[in-house]
Amino acid sequence: MELARPPFPLARMAAIWAVLSGIIVAMNAYNIAAREFPDPDDILRLVQVRDLLAGQDWFDLHQYRLDPPHGTLMHWSRLVDIPLAAILGSLTWLLGPLLAETVTIVLVPLLTLGVVLAVVCKVADRFFSGDEVTFAGLALGLSPLFVAQIQPLRIDHHGWQVACVMVALLGLLPGRRGRGAVLSGVALAFGLSISLEILPHLAAFGLVFGLRWLVHHDRRSLPTFLLTLTATLGALFLATRGLVDLAAHCDAVSPVHLAVFSTTTLATLAVAAVDPRSRLAATGLLGLSAAAGLAVLLTVTPECVSGPFGNLEPEVRHFWYENVLEGLPVWHVPAALAVPVVIGGIIALVTLARLIGISPPEERQWWTEYLIIAAVGFVAAVLTWRSQAFVGALSAVPIGWLTVRLLERLRTASTLGRKGLGGLSAVLILLPSAPTALAKVTVGESTVQTGAMSKVTDSTCALTTSVPLLNRIPAGTALAPLDIGPELLGRSHHAVVATGHHRGHAAMRDVILAFTVPPERAREIMRQRRARYLVFCDDLHEARLFAEEAPTGLAARLIAGRPPAWLEPIELGQPKPFQLYRIKY
Prior knowledge:
Blueprint lengths: L9 H18 L1 H6 L5 H14 L8 E2 L8 E2 L4 H18 L1 H31 L2 H12 L2 H7 L7 H13 L6 H18 L4 H18 L4 H20 L14 H20 L4 H22 L13 H6 L15 H24 L2 H23 L4 H25 L3 H15 L3 H10 L19 H4 L10 E3 L5 H7 L3 E2 L8 H12 L2 H10 L4 E5 L3 H9 L4 H6 L7 E3 L8 E6 L2
Parallel strand pairs: 3-4, 3-5
Antiparallel strand pairs: 1-2, 5-7, 6-7
């Protein structure tokens, strides 16, 4: 008679969440008090939620103060806005707008942490004992690039993407079969509706369910998964996009993507109806099903094959896209930061392979599928640095198991040397950022930077206090470096020509040109964009890049303290690096 499993250790999970949340909040106390967002996308997300609560239509995703008068259509999903708007809308009447926003932008990322932690603890508890659950949860909280996506004020979509992939992982647990395929399909549909960045992870799950068909003779899971995924995608599209925008976008789920998944799903259902007995025939027919969906994409939107950034102007690609470090491959990341993170991911993959070898036969399929999902996620993270957050989450369970094994060896080691080696190994596995911290001390902070085009928070312009001063002057459109545009939108009543968001690439090009061409040509660009003010921070990396690339351009003149005569300085008591001008035409 099979013994009943003990109940899920909810109290243990809650304690881990409370400890991690407390540490993360304490480490970010200054940023919370100053409302200093870790990324420009976070403050622009708050602007979008404010506009929604102020009455902007649910299906209208334009940011009208971005490239006015028509605004810029954002590619972001309303799904991410829901928890923010729900909590903020509920608390505003009680706490007031400012405090309600602060509570919301701290609480929502910690809720995202709770979702991922619940999955990690559920998986660890399913196969191991209490110690592994504890250390798996701690491993999750000690993964620096995962924590970076769920820290307070990090309210953009990346944390929720990780949560969706982790929830989908629960669908692969042994014994779930059809309902597991449904869970995975629903979770990945939510993740894909948030952002197409999880397409590699979706492909990994498709591969797993395909192998179940071909290797384990499970012909129901793959069709169930695809049917659930496609139906949920369609429902979410109607619920969040409606019929307002039916264009074929390459950067968000649009009708062409629904057609791709529908074609693949129908073809797979047809293969299931035929039920080929030959494994070779089944492999060929399933391959044709995937090819049919790809053919739809190539026929309707061949430009999407190159990704959402394929139509960027050369100036935008050079000055912006190629300097957004988080979107570049790992070999563009400083070695002091990249090496320990990559090694940590490899250790997790090796540990999963080890678990396959030592597990009982009924669990080997699970660990094999886990390894496939983690391996594809690791490859995706090598190609796109910010995807290392997925690696951190997927590594938590195997790292937790490995840590317990190392601690057991440490406890039973017979010599001091073996104890020291075991303790050092456990520390390096649980704290992959330790080498990075050491590198910062020994080789300098600048060698191990992780940021995008500019480290806005490193500027001495004091944007959190300087930008609100602009509310003293009449509202107008400001031309400013791309990375401080969201600050102007979030902390003042002004509009901006462009921010670092690719759908506004034409306006982004004009901003880049305005700072890199001679002053008289720059003024003509500003006239065409109806700019009333110019805002500039002379110690931003972005500004320095403009000046280095164009020593006779406007940015170089401003950094040198030689603004053209048609720029009238406005003094509001801001620090010297923060330059504010009225444009005279």
